Sequence to fold (228 residues):
Amino acid sequence: AAGVIQSPRHLIKEKRETATLKCYPIPRHDTVYWYQQGPGQDPQFLISFYEKMQSDKGSIPDRFSAQQFSDYHSELNMSSLELGDSALYFCASSLGDSDTEAFFGQGTRLTVV
Amino acid sequence: AQKITQTQPGMFVQEKEAVTLDCTYDTSDQSYGLFWYKQPSSGEMIFLIYQGSYDEQNATEGRYSLNFQKARKSANLVISASQLGDSAMYFCAMREGSYGQNFVFGPGTRLSVLP
Fold:
């Protein structure tokens, strides 16, 4: 079965550079979530989209932005990267209008040097 | 206040034995979903099991079952017949409402299965 696809899997950037992370949800899933997981921490919610509209916002820095496109894929744009942005970034997808399973991608490991 | 509490930072279990990982939650919503995820050392977040707040029966998925006690607001994960490959971090998570409401994760429990 198709799963959530994230790209790239690994990314190394220098401070003050920009990065774009991509997420392709499971087919027919209309909701996408972005999470950031620092070393040894639980995932922290950044932002979510339902039917291409932002539905909820968490602790996402102003330097980050995201959107969901007409094909339901989502991109997380990160600018002016800082060392503290080094983390595992997860995307998850689900069917937004019911309490159903939500599946995560394999994550993008971002390292800022 | 913490919405998800996992009181066991680390657990050990002997191979082939059963183990229970604790999770309690806090919500005033009537509609919510409870999830368990497994995160091995490779980093991916693997969905294990889901329990809806209106589900009357405990969820089961293979060797995983969720002991859902609504009045006590607990959603413990039971793994039967532990295997070495079960060694990982386990996260309990909750989603309140629907339509893109985010998941809140607990701090996790690191399970180590001993041969």
